[in-house]
TrEMBL record:
Residues 23-283 form the EAL domain. It comes from the Bacteria. This is EAL domain-containing protein.
Length: 284
């Protein structure tokens, strides 16, 4: 909480120093995190309007040997700044592909795993088909091609579409060409518009949780969600609402024709083991 007065100035400079030290330490520690097997993925179910599980979003966690569990919001940015996100991102994809095989065994071959992809992973490729795309398409274990049946969905943030470089533009075209589905994450938080969605062959829009959470008490949020869903459908794009926590939100969103729901109301992100035995039992 921000407070005025002299004390806040002193505290600010201390916490700024702390933040810098923390940043340097984390970037250093990130170097060994993959080889030390400190990362793992958790999975959050995404539910359709009939109450069935249709996807799981893979979310990274870092079990730091001294600092304990570190959520992605506290290290992804540093990994992006240091370039380590490339290696981490490739690890996420290979892990998600392995999980997909188990998940499909339980939920059937239409279920997908959605992975978060940093803009840097798309812009940092060296010509031709990027390593990243390659990793989506090939299967290291010689198992059935994970992508052949649209196994993975790539989640990008809408900020990415607003400053497209050549490589990213190319990557998005490659996705289209290879039939890799794309979800636009955090929709409504940036300044992009549905025009971007139209121009870039996006498959899903994810309404940001900040809007979903306002559904309970702000009528402007109601109109906004309704309008997003309406226009997305006109463009042939399916809508996922994230951060759904209450039955009331479920009712409103489904009333507006929202296609998919994701949030604590249905499940927190869970281990793969838990995901494989998850029973969706909420009334839809
Ligand atoms: P995101 O992609 O928008 O993911 C949704 C976040 O909302 C997750 O936080 C999830 O745990 C949380 N969430 C889900 N349902 C609810 C709910 O009902 N209420 C509330 N309050 N929160 C909910 P998480 O796991 O801490 O991830 C934070 C962000 O870190 C993600 O936001 C994503 O941008 C990034 N991230 C996570 N995993 C990866 C990854 O593997 N690679 C990259 N590049 N980024 C990742
Ligand atoms: Ca996401
Ligand atoms: Ca999001
Ligand atoms: Ca986010």
């Amino acid at each position: 909480a921000k407070k005025c007065g002299r004390d806040s100035v002193r505290r600010f400079s201390w916490s700024l120093k702390d933040a810098l030290v923390q940043r340097i330490e984390l970037i250093k520690d990130l170097r060994h995190a993959i080889s030390n097997q400190e990362f793992y993925l958790v999975y959050q179910p995404i539910i359709d309007s009939k109450g069935s599980v249709v996807k799981f979003e893979a979310l990274i966690r870092w079990q730091h040997p001294e600092k304990g569990l570190i959520p992605p919001d506290q290290f992804i940015q540093f990994a992006e700044e240091s370039g380590q996100i490339i290696e981490i991102g490739n690890w996420v994809i290979s892990e998600a592909k392995k999980a997909l095989i188990d998940i499909r065994r339980v939920y059937g071959d239409d279920v997908q795993v959605s992975v978060n992809v940093s803009p840097i992973q798309l812009s940092n490729q060296q010509g031709g088909i990027c390593v990243f795309l390659e990793s989506l398409l090939t299967d290291p274990d010689g198992l059935k091609d994970a992508q052949q049946k649209n196994g993975l969905v790539v989640e990008i943030t809408e900020h990415l579409l607003m400053n497209l470089d050549e490589n990213t533009r190319k990557a998005l075209l490659d996705f289209r060409e290879k039939g890799i589905q794309v979800a636009l994450d955090d929709f409504g938080t940036g300044h992009s518009s549905l025009a971007y969605v139209m121009n870039h062959d996006i498959d899903y829009l994810k309404i940001d949780k900040s809007f979903v959470q306002k559904l309970d008490d702000e009528s402007s949020a109601l109109s906004l969600c309704e309008a997003i869903i309406l226009m997305a459908h006109k463009l042939g794009v399916l809508v996922i609402a994230e951060g759904v926590e209450t039955q009331h939100q479920v009712d409103l969103l489904l009333g507006y024709g929202c296609d998919y729901l994701q949030g604590f109301y249905f499940s927190r992100p869970i281990s793969l083991e838990q995901a494989l035995t998850y029973q969706q039992n909420k009334v839809i």
